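note to self — DONT lose this again. spent like an hour looking for the file last time. sequence + predicted structure for the chain T wanted, 261 res
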Amino acid sequence: APALLLVPAALASFILAFGTGVEFVRFTSLRPLLGGIPESGGPDARQGWLAALQDRSILAPLAWDLGLLLLFVGQHSLMAAERVKAWTSRYFGVLQRSLYVACTALALQLVMRYWEPVPRGPVLWEAQAEPWATWVPLLCFVLHVISWLLIFSILLVFDYAELMGLKQVYYHVLGLGEPLALKSPRALRLFSHLRHPVCVELLTVLWVVPTLGMDRLLLALLLTLYLGLAHGLDQQDLRYLRAQLQRKLHLLSRPQDGEAE
């Protein structure tokens, strides 16, 4: 009976997270690249930054957006704290990771659904004159596609099922124990440091846009600071990553060697 409840709960969390990920791609890439938000322009977009910071019609949505981002960052950090993880593990057991993923997805959904664009006010940069108005959005689109492909590839390498909490439930139902218990100490050390294995790619998505208005600047700046604080690799972690990459490349090259012989 418990297994019949655990599996649907883990699957529901996974589906919610997957749908949120798709929505996040639309929010961070498709809207700014394909014109889903009002374009800046006119005299309001040319006013100075000091004047914009005194304009209540600009400050109000920026303050609202900042509150949404702080809600997401607070949830993401608080539930990752050891005390909170121990508490949720005590009451939710093997569903602890699924609960964390579901709450993160819900917090991110709040950010995306209630985000207030700021079409008025100054922009940090904007591609207007030709040929930049044509080529800069195209270049941004290509870089976003490459970044998202890299993100999905890296997530698969980092055991996506475990990241989403599915593997924990699967192992529990089959009586195999905790998946992390089967990993090497060096892998566990890496995972404790590398909370966001797609840092560089996400930064590319956040900053490489044709027009960087005030709300996009707020989004990119705050998430960049958060990613920077969460991204704490050292030389030992980098050596382990290099060794694992060489091992995987060696395994991929072995069938080709066999065919050559």
